[in-house]
Amino acid sequence: MTNAVRSPIKLFQFPRMFAIPNLSPFCCKLETWLRIAQIPYEVVDTPDPRKGPKGKLPFIEDGGIRIADSSRIIEHLAKTRGVNLDAHLDAGQRAMALLVQRTLEEHYAFVLAYTHLLRDEGFRHTRTRFDSVPAMIRPLVSALVQRQIRKLLWTQGILRHSDEEIIESALRDWRAVLAMMSQGPFFFGAEATGVDAIVFGTLASTVLTPIESPIRDFLRSQPGCLAYAERMRAQFFPEFAHPTPQESAA
Ligand SMILES: N[C@@H](CCC(=O)N[C@@H](CS)C(=O)NCC(=O)O)C(=O)O
Q1: Given 87, 195, 204, 231, which is the most exposed site by the fewest CB atoms within 10 A?
Q2: Coil, strand or helix: which one is 114?
Q3: Are 147 and 191 in contact (CB under 8 A)?
Q4: How far apart (Å, rounded) are the C-alpha atoms in residues 233 and 219?
Q5: For the whole prediction, is pTM greater than 0.85?
């Protein structure tokens, strides 16, 4: 079947915040991959991750079947739609892409949860995601969610470090990732590949939102880094490229 006769994929993800595709690095990654691959989809705003087959977002519904996990979804779509964004990469570049993915998704994503959902500078902005919860129980729900995140990050390990140590570990992640990045326009040069979706997935919520942190300051000071994020947004999400002051802060 071609894309023309398939019904569009349903993409279940957190409601958007700020002038980026999604604050969640995994939701942002998947939607970016879909845009690079030019696969049509419909967004279904889903504030509650427990609705998904694995209790996390994003997930998709494709031909009545629900699939969870951004990487598994990408594998499924690559196979069923015959798309391979990484076809021209050599073995070394594919290995590099996997190491970047592991650095950003298995370490930096936890730091993002810390800076955006626990740290005051982040929570001040992200608490608005509870605005749809009835006012009576809003403080309770928001405290409960924060407690769950604290528990997750304690078990994972990063919360056993000081703020300074957590930030330093994230700067190390980014120094390594930026050292591998080409001069552009994309991670491996002329064409956008799967790793661009992953890098933009985490970079967008770090540098294109008003959430302040030393990581944001560091990345915005690195030559080409902010320009890369803005270029990815302008090319694949032109609807967010010129945010109004309200959208930038929302
Ligand atoms: N490996 C998964 C990770 C997805 C994930 O961790 N999603 C987070 C949001 S960034 C989530 O749904 N968290 C809710 C929870 O764990 O309750 C993927 O690639 O999709």
Answers
A1: 87
A2: helix
A3: no
A4: 16
A5: yes
